[in-house]
Amino acid sequence: MELKLLDEQSDYHHPKMPSSAAGLVKKLHDLAVQKKGYIDLQGIAKKNSDSCPFGNTLPKDPSCTSPCSWASSDPSLFLIRGKTYLRNQNKVKAKGSLMQMVGADWLRSNTRQDDLCSRPGSIVQQYAAKGGPEFFFVINIQMPGSPLSSIALYYMIETPLQDTPLLQRFVDGDDAFRNSRFKLIPYISKGSWIVKQSVGNKACLLGQALKICYVRGRNYLELDVDVGSSAVARGVASLVFRYLNNLVVEMAFLIQANTEAELPEVLVGTCQLNRMDVAKAFVVKP
């Protein structure tokens, strides 16, 4: 039941704001003054109890010891197309990623949760309000079931998109181009043998097997990936969910390079999900 799409070698080795919102904005400003780079909104957003803090519902744990948490995976775990791939099909260990993972969501709801980036109070909208150069690439993996579940991964880049031409082509391209290039490399680093065999560790072009809705905003591109749109993917997802509490899932995302000029490939970002618990998912109210 392995989800195989590419015959490749293994690729693992405004109205007036209420006072609570005003307080949140003030705290964000204070943090921005104190820090360089991206703002860590994990603790702050949780205090805004009036709405879902999209981008911060799943805690970060770089040590990957806390159940139901996320961290960035080591890029060198994943094999990607090297500079000479078109001549000798050689793959090399990834050395880094274009974007930094800055947040994650673990959601439950009775309805599909699309376009998370546009939600008021989300990480993306808080950065948009500042008018800075940051651009977000968000992968919203929507799982079938009752209730529905979503795992959303938030990646951010501060340099202009034109500095990375293939990424810019993907962001500004049409859906056909995006579906032909968006690639996932999965890997179960800890967990059941049967799950490892079912998920596999080969690169796959998600848009050729699953329905993906692309939402382009001013400072973001969100990919709403419908796992339920494929019978094979539904079967794999059902199996994974049965063992989810005991799994450590590693993923890398990239835009496939097809020409000499586009090589070598570079990861967009990586993610590690540690022993996810459905009962701990943030419940999104209607």
TrEMBL record:
<dbReference type="InterPro" id="IPR045096">
    <property type="entry name" value="EDR2-like"/>
</dbReference>
<dbReference type="InterPro" id="IPR009769">
    <property type="entry name" value="EDR2_C"/>
</dbReference>
<protein>
    <recommendedName>
        <fullName>Protein ENHANCED DISEASE RESISTANCE 2 C-terminal domain-containing protein</fullName>
    </recommendedName>
</protein>
<dbReference type="Pfam" id="PF07059">
    <property type="entry name" value="EDR2_C"/>
</dbReference>
<feature type="domain" description="Protein ENHANCED DISEASE RESISTANCE 2 C-terminal">
    <location>
        <begin position="70"/>
        <end position="277"/>
    </location>
</feature>
